[in-house]
Automatic annotation (TrEMBL):
Binding note for cofactor: Binds 1 zinc ion per subunit.
InterPro entries according to UniProt: MetalloPept_cat_dom_sf, Peptidase_M12A, Peptidase_Metallo, ZnMP_hatching_enz
Species this chain originates from: Culter alburnus
Domain Peptidase M12A: from-to ranges: 67-265
SMART domains referenced in this protein's UniProt entry, alphabetically: ZnMc (SM00235)
Active site: E166
Cofactor(s) in the UniProt record: Zn(2+)
Keyword entries, A-Z: Disulfide bond, Hydrolase, Metal-binding, Metalloprotease, Protease, Signal, Zinc, Zymogen
Name of the protein in its database record: Metalloendopeptidase
GO molecular function: metalloendopeptidase activity; zinc ion binding
Alphabetical GO biological process terms: proteolysis
Binding site for Zn(2+): H165, H169, H175
The UniProt record lists the keyword Hydrolase: yes
Pfam families the record matches: Astacin (PF01400)
Length: 265
């Protein structure tokens, strides 16, 4: 092999060795998907860290007007029309890409497929939800009246399961692990919570609609929610500690049952 050929091969190998890290970085940045091990709590709470909104239970907007947290009548819930359909008017911010909008539409279609809830594009309705790219993943609870924001930050919230989670809050549903009878089904490890975070686990006076506790609910937070240190469990299922909680794939069968019971579908 002559000198020029050897030099060419060496230069080619050098170029490949220098290009490989960049190619790998581009691959990671563009093609590698989010690990399935990241639960809904980690994704939501990490994204909400530093949010300017006052939030309770991690992603619920503190009541400013009427709210299903303190609802004395059905004004906190969306109304069913004469066709037995519950229409929830909405608008979507222009900040979202077509891909983002497709994810949001997919989340809405899960409700359309198995409940009488229909998210409809707003025309002139007074009460509606506004899906916006704000500083976190959060929603108010139930129908608050007027414009109410459902925030799906583009950097961490635009996933089908998270969109379903926040939309279900807007329909009036709490987190599963704060329902009134939760102590029969999960143990809260208070020692793994800082004092200023323990309020996020206060039980609520919920209407459980005679449905079983649902470890697989899209509304159930994961094992390490609000932990003092990463990896510490704050929520442990009982009596079987190995039961999976904190999924974000989509509405569970019991989530769907509860929506249909609450809204008389």
């Amino acid at each position: 092999m002559d000198t020029r050929a050897s030099l060419s091969i060496l230069l080619l190998l050098f170029g490949i060795s220098q290009a490989s890290p960049l190619m790998e970085q581009m691959f990671e940045g563009v093609f590698v998907s989010e690990p399935e091990t990241i639960d809904i709590t980690t994704r939501i709470l990490d994204t909400n860290n530093g949010s300017s909104e006052v939030l309770i239970e991690g992603d619920l907007v503190f009541p400013k007007t009427r709210n299903a947290l303190y609802c004395l009548n059905n004004n906190c819930f969306w109304k069913k029309n004469s066709n037995n359909v519950v229409e929830v008017p909405y608008i979507v911010s222009a900040e979202f890409s077509n891909s983002d909008k497709s994810v949001i539409a997919n989340a809405m279609s899960a409700f359309h497929a198995k409940t009488c809830i229909r998210f409809v594009a707003r025309s002139s309705q007074t009460d509606y939800i506004s899906i916006e790219n704000k500083d976190g993943c959060y929603s108010s609870l139930g129908r608050t009246g007027g414009k109410q924001v459902v925030s799906l930050n583009r950097r961490g919230c635009v996933y089908t399961g998270i969109a379903e989670h926040e939309l279900n809050h807007a329909l009036g549903f709490y987190h599963e692990h704060t329902r009134s009878d939760r102590d029969k089904y999960v143990q809260i490890n208070w020692e793994n919570l800082s004092a200023d975070m323990s309020y996020n686990f206060e039980k609520q006076n919920t209407n459980n609609q005679n449905t079983p506790y649902d470890y697989g609910s899209i509304m159930h937070y994961g094992r390490t929610a609000f932990a003092i240190q990463p990896g510490l469990e704050t929520i442990t299922p009982i009596p079987d500690a190995t039961v999976e909680i904190g999924q974000r794939q989509g509405l569970s069968n019991i989530d769907i049952l509860r929506i249909n019971k609450l809204y008389g579908c």
